[in-house]
Amino acid sequence: MAEINILIVADNPLARMGLVTLLSGQAGLRIAGQTSGGAGFAEELDLYRPDVLVWDWGWGSAPELPLNCPVVALLRDNTQATDAWSAGVRGLLPGAAEAESIVAAVQAVAQGLAVFDPELASTLLPTASPADVPLEALTVREMEVLQLLAEGLPNKLIAARLGITDHTVKFHVNAIMGKLGVQSRTEAVVRATRSGLIIL
């Protein structure tokens, strides 16, 4: 299995060095570089060409994320989970996560999956409970659509992947949200994950 090139991103130089130390020598990962994510970030992405960003979220507002590069965010506070997910982060871990958890999250997001620490997932959807959703509630096609939602794909790409129309995807998404008792795609993914309907 090819190594995954990661770029460490953090405003604080001590945080950057801490992550470099923590992740150096981890099997399957190669640290391509480190950056503050400030001015010149786009050029640094071109230089390092990372597969995944490992981003210390810090205390500031949600940064602007690069397109087409998945992010594992290390959050200082559970309240940052919603902002991070809305910004496009697909790997959410607490700032004190162990190296093994970070490696697993990097490997998952590199394959297009989404990863939530259980405690952070409960912040995204506090009322979710595995007992809320019976496993037989969704059809096979709805399960396929739900898995692609978890990968962060928009309706057009889901339609292309499954060979169906955009209208049919919208129909399935609405049915999924109705069956799971949620109001958004994000809530659907979180609730389905916590209920064991999909494995991230």
Overview features:
single chain; 200 residues; alpha/beta; Rossmann fold; Arc Repressor Mutant, subunit A; 2 domains; 6-stranded parallel sheet; 9 helices; 44% helix; globular
Can you walk through the features of this model?
The protein is α/β, with parallel strands linked by helices and 200 residues long. The protein folds into two domains: 4-124, Response regulator (Rossmann fold, 3-Layer(aba) Sandwich); 130-194, Orthogonal Bundle (Arc Repressor Mutant, subunit A). The protein contains nine helices and six strands. It has helices at 13-23, 41-48, 81-87, 99-110, 118-124, 140-150, 155-162, 166-180, 185-194, and strands at 4-9, 29-35, 52-58, 71-75, 91-94, 115-116. Strands 2-1-3-4-5-6 form a six-stranded parallel β-sheet, sandwiched between helices. The protein is globular, with a radius of gyration of 17 Å.
